Amino acid sequence: MMETTMRKIDQLLAEYGESHQNSTNKAIHWICVPLIFFSVLGLFASIPAGPVQYLLGDNPYAHWATVFVILGLAYYVTLSIPLAFGMMLFSAMCLYFINVITSQGWTLWVVCLTIFVLAWIGQFYGHKVEGKKPSFLKDLQFLLIGPAWLMHFVFKRMGIPY
Predict the structure, then answer these.
(1) Are 129 and 22 in contact (CB under 8 A)?
(2) Which residue range is the domain that position 80 belongs to?
(3) Are 68 and 41 in contact (CB under 8 A)?
(4) Which secondary-structure segment (H or E) carries 140?
(5) pLDDT tens across 47-65, in order?
(6) Dihedral of CA 133/136/142/143: which sign?
(7) Separation of CA 125 from chain center
């Protein structure tokens, strides 16, 4: 008798999906998870660059958000190379819009903190509707699985194996 083992990414996505069954909660997540991801990157980008700028040079992407993206992508590669590629594209788009915000003269940390707070209010409302606690309260890695969970739906829709 052969035993089939589920890939770690499939296990994590299935576990995350258990507390995301309600259609209202899912819809809220499609809005709030990308906003939280973006706002966290923006908050990291707001931290004085110091050694990061020394390593990456004087360019608009020489900040802590880029370091966070690189570390996050390393984690995603261990789970699924195609999903890591999707997350790389989404991360690049976020970094681009962070630079747009700063080039407009807006205070990045204020914009991102506002987005962060409002998006988390939305998330907790969605989980109240769902009647289940957010997955990250059980395991912090689910903070990174949330965006991948959404990305896997995009991949499925496009017929791309992940």
Answers:
(1) yes
(2) 25-158
(3) yes
(4) none
(5) 988 887 777 777 888 899 9
(6) positive
(7) 19
pLDDT score of 5 more than 80: no
Q: The pTM is what?
A: 0.90
Residue 12 lies in a domain: no
| Tokens encoding 151 | 């990305």
Question: Which residue type is seen at 98?
Answer: I
Any idea which residue has 């940390």 for tokens?
A: 109
Domain for residue 3, yes or no?
A: no
Does position 3 have pLDDT exceeding 60, yes or no? no
62 in a domain, yes or no? yes
Going along 22-104, which residue ranges are E strands? none
pLDDT value of residue 133:
86
Give me the number of domains the chain comprises. 1
In a domain, 148, yes or no: yes
Q: What pLDDT does residue 55 have?
A: 75
